[in-house]
Design brief:
- The protein is 75% helix and 0% strand.
């Protein structure tokens, strides 16, 4: 898009201006110092863990609800019911995804971790219950349905990563790409181990794995918040020191101005002294 002949389009200029207003740094060259900074920072490691645990910390890759309905003998569900009832899980996902975004931006003043922690807690409650399996049928249905509340955290995780890495465009690119890549690297092999079809519909290994990943997700969210707040506090402290230094420098008199003032005062003294001396001499003489 940037290299296209129509790169001077108004929408592209608008997007670039929006990035500037968001505080995003412009592109720069990759250097050894920059690469070292990226891979020695906590950003790339914690944010990758955050997204990997979210992306693999749910049963979204496996139709567990539909398989449970198909396996049921009392009552026996029709094909239409088996196809329709599991859509309630995705309805919960849609509602919670929008709610997380609105609440995070408005009520929580941009805080990203509370919805992530909430989604992780819902996952733990639901999947611990499903791992037990011998629970009331109504509660099992509830767990299948409200587990969709843990599906809608992708946007928050990505938004948080963009905000944390806003001061370095190259770091932001590598971190976002690593988050996305590693999440699907795990998703390529993990379901083959914990979501085996021979266990359906009681995926005990899968439910326990998701519970553990959700717990790691919550802990990672709190760790990310702590380190990010500490990082912001340090940046604000440095900025305050720079501001105070600038104010002190401005309040100091200019050495050149001081020398000129001293020269003018000495010149006035030298011209006034003879006059005063002459007047005193005349008075003494009279």
């Amino acid at each position: 898009m940037v290299r296209s002949p129509s790169k001077n389009r108004p929408d592209l200029a608008f997007a670039q201006k929006r990035m500037e207003l968001e505080g995003r740094k412009p592109r720069a060259k990759y250097t050894k110092k920059k690469v070292k900074k990226i891979f020695t920072s906590w950003h790339i490691y914690l944010l990758v863990v955050l997204y990997v645990t979210f992306n693999n910390g749910a049963a979204g890759a496996v139709p567990v609800f539909a398989q449970y309905l198909k396996d049921s003998k009392h009552p026996k569900y029709t094909i239409k019911q088996i196809n329709d009832y599991p859509t309630t899980t995705y309805a919960v996902q849609v509602v919670t995804t929008l709610s997380y975004a609105w609440i995070s931006d408005s009520v929580l003043n941009g805080a990203r971790h509370p919805p992530i922690v909430f989604g992780g807690i819902i996952n733990i409650i639901c999947y611990i219950s499903l791992a037990i399996w011998n629970i009331p049928n109504g509660w099992r249905w509830t767990c299948f349905i409200i587990s969709g509340a843990g599906y809608g955290l992708s946007g928050l995780c990505m938004a948080w990563a963009h905000e944390i890495c806003a001061s370095d465009n190259e770091e932001r690119a590598i971190v976002i790409a690593s988050m996305n890549e590693m999440a699907y690297v795990f998703q390529a092999w993990l379901p083959l181990i914990v979501w085996q079809q021979v266990d359906a519909p009681n995926y005990r290994k899968g439910y326990i794995t998701v519970t553990i990943l959700s717990l790691i997700l919550i802990l990672t969210a709190f760790a990310t918040r702590y380190l990010h707040e500490r990082e912001k506090a340090r940046s604000e402290a440095v900025y305050t020191v720079l501001e105070m230094t600038e104010l002190i420098d401005k309040s100091r008199p200019d050495p050149d101005d001081g020398s000129e003032q001293r020269d003018s005062v000495s010149e006035e003294d030298s011209t006034e002294a003879p006059v005063i001396e002459t007047q005193n001499t005349k008075a003494f003489a009279s």
